[in-house]
Structure formats: C-alpha cells, structure tokens
Specification:
Blueprint (H helix, E strand, L loop, with lengths): L2 E4 L13 E7 L4 H16 L6 E7 L5 H11 L4 E4 L4 H5 L7 E5 L5 E6 L6 H17 L17 H15 L1
C-alpha cells in the first residue's frame, strides 16, 4: 500500500507530467501531521484509479528507515512516502514548518502551498484536498504559481533545482 522511497532513489516526476501532484511534508513527531495523514491516505485511495492525479508524501526526519517502516505499517497509508532523512528535499522546496502541503498542476506549476492544517477533522481535510486537486486540474489556482518546465525533468531533485533557480532569479 505505502511505498518507502529513500532519498537516494529519484522519484521521477516526469512520469507524472500532465497530472496534479500532491506532496505532503510531515514527521512522525508532528501531531498535526499525524492528524492529516489519514485524510491524505483517503484522498490517495479515492484518486488511485484517476490517471490525472498522483498523491505522495515526504517524511522529514533523521530516523532509521526501519523505524519509519514500523510507523507506516501501523498507519496503513495508501500513498508513496519519500524518506528525506537529511532534509535536502524539504529545504529545496523551502518547507519551513510541518505539515506542509504542496500542489503542482498538470502544467508543472506549484499552485498551492500550505503550512499547517485547515482542520483537525478528517472529512474536512479530505474535502479541502479534493477541492485543491480539482482546482489545480482546472487551472484555477494561480495566486502563488511558480513556473518550471516539466518536459526535460527526470527527477524530483531536478524539479527542486529548477524551482530554486527560478526563485533566485526572481529575487
């Protein structure tokens, strides 16, 4: 059900070109993260057969992969988990607090970033996530868009580098 992807394995987001990508950054010690994970898992299950949506997460903590596996086994999550032990992915996405949710639209633009959770109730969180996915799919989220081309991207780290480069040029 869940898939632990180490930070050394490159998740190829080029495979998800044309899809809405939802990334949730979290840690086991983070109480709001533990509240949001079941909602993310439900949304991932609801969209499992939808070729237009990919839902995954990034665990940001320096713990052994075995300890993280035990935690994930208890939760029975239904989405891939990237283990960001040294925080490089989190830093490159400029994640400053946990949980942080990032939504990328099918054109490869970050359309939504949110630190914290909007509710402590799973049904409210599920509705919120589904609304963000639908808006990103339709192109309605434009306020915080950061553009990067996905056509030549072969890994998540390449995407991150393009975002950082774009931000540095903008600043």
């Amino acid at each position: 059900l869940w898939l632990l992807i180490s930070q050394h394995h490159h998740l190829n987001l080029k495979e998800h070109q044309g899809q809405v990508v939802v990334l949730d950054f979290w840690a086991t010690w983070c109480a709001p993260c533990r509240i949001s994970l079941p909602a993310l898992s439900q949304v991932a299950a609801d969209y499992a057969d939808d070729p237009g949506v990919w839902v995954g997460s990034v665990n940001r903590e320096n713990m052994s992969s075995e300890s993280l596996r035990r935690f994930l086994d208890r939760l029975k999550l239904k989405f891939p988990v990237i283990h960001d032990q040294i925080g490089s992915i989190s830093r490159q996405y400029d994640v400053r607090g946990l949980p942080t949710l990032i939504v990328i639209n099918p054109a490869g633009k970050i359309t939504y970033t949110q630190a914290g959770i909007v509710s402590r109730h799973t049904p409210v969180l599920v509705r919120h996530l589904k609304k963000l996915i639908e808006e990103a799919a339709l192109g309605h989220l434009n306020e915080r868009e950061e553009s990067f081309a996905m056509s030549d991207i072969t890994s998540d780290l390449e995407i991150i580098n393009k975002i950082l480069h774009h931000r540095l040029q903008r600043d």
